[in-house]
Amino acid sequence: MKLKKLLLIPLIVILAGINCEDAYASENLPYQTYNYDYWGDVFYTPAAYIPDQSISGADLGTDQMVTPQDMYVAEDGKTYICDSGNNRILILNSDLKLDHIIDNFDNQGTADTFLNPSGIYVSSKNELYIADTDHMRVVVLDESGGIIKIIQNPTSEVLDSDFQFAPLKVTVDYAGRVYVVAKNMFQGIMAFDENGDFSGFSGTIQVEISSYDKFWRIFSTKSQRERQIQFIPTEFTGIDIAPDGFVYATNVDTNGIQSIRRLNPKGQDVIKKKKTGNLSGDLYWSDNDEYGGASRIADVVYRGNGIYSVIDTTRGRVFTYDDEGDLLYIFGGMGSQEGTFRNPAAIEVVGDKILVLDSFRGEVMSFVPTEYGNLINQAVALRYDGDEASAVEVWKKVLKLDANFELAYTGIGKSYLAAGENKKAMEYLKLGMNREYYSIAFKRYRDDMLKENMAYVLSGGLLLVIALFIRKAIKKRKIKGATENE
Known about the structure:
The strands form eight sheets. Strands 3-27-26-25 form a four-stranded antiparallel β-sheet. Helix 7 runs antiparallel to helix 8 (406-418) and helix 9 runs antiparallel to helix 10. The chain has eleven helices and 27 strands. The chain folds into three domains: 48-369, TolB, C-terminal domain (Neuraminidase); 389-452, no CATH class; 453-486. It has helices at residues 2-15, 18-27, 57-60, 211-219, 222-227, 371-384, 388-401, 406-418, 422-431, 435-452, 454-485, and strands spanning 34-36, 42-44, 49-56, 70-73, 79-83, 88-92, 98-102, 105-107, 110-112, 117-122, 128-132, 137-141, 147-152, 167-172, 178-182, 189-192, 198-202, 236-241, 247-251, 260-263, 297-304, 307-312, 318-321, 327-331, 344-350, 353-358, 363-369. The chain is α+β, with helices and mostly antiparallel strands.
């Protein structure tokens, strides 16, 4: 079933209509753009983002990047790239031109270098947090490259005595707490206080054991149990942090159900999910081809207004969601053409552009929004700010480009609901397949009808009571008259 639905995409593209075909031809994209409706069926969409440029080491006037693993866009617009294979950090200015390179630093009077740095984060104070993976430490530098501190060799009763700290990704909240995704660490994201001391785990994901497996493990011998699958928590792959201090993290999920988490300061996942959907990229896939299997979400970037995007390394697609778990749009793919990837490793945003770091090619690829993508971003931002009325006109423009976009109908329906126009709200919420808000609109519409017709209802009820009273009186008189005649 999964394979059949995925293979329907090209057919849907062909049958989508002349206008859609013209849009596809004019953009000449190397990938198909689609989404899923309420029932989980695939439908073709206009492109939300299109390729803009690719940036290699040669374009920057330096050596070719070798297996770069991470990048980060700081508040001042500069882009920091972990050129892992070259053991250096590339810093690009807001125009994506090379500003300078950090490949060494002074460590208390001794020249020090990096070894396969795989993660980078820059604080609001322009402090660089570098996951220096093979040196098993997090190096913290000031903006001039001076050493601030080094986080290494964490110790705790919850850590094995032979645990080797190999940080892969790093981020920092407004209080200076450091969150690290470490290699072979399945208990969760490692958390460190502002002094660099290990304080525990955040976002631990417990894998549930099915009743079937529990039953058979009871009757298994010790050797059989040792050969069975070990039920350990899953590993994290990427991390980002929102201004409110909530951590967005991605994790491996071979079932393709949830690969994205939003962790509060207590480490609890509070992300909103749809009952009929998932937060793990593609809903359907095949297990039998080169790009088979569930989407493997490698990284996440929080974009503001509740919007976040993730990158899938299985099929090279970028998935974007809003704060309510709605899938907004999909773009990208695997291949050798411009706009496709070989091994996407990280995702970031600079202005309205989306940047994807391809580890295999050693390039940063830039994508710019189309009118369709811009309108969706604007409408979601307006709705997130509570300005449903202003969002309506934007949603209507989205529907002119994509009449199948259910979220636009829902957005308009919610606006009408907020304005008290419950009948119109019902119409749009039905088209948006939003049962929850349709029920609310229906109840309000029913109450409105009762209020508007209450006088008639009461008058009718009073007349009915009077009629019944008269009928009863007449019946009594007839019975009395019949008795007297006897």
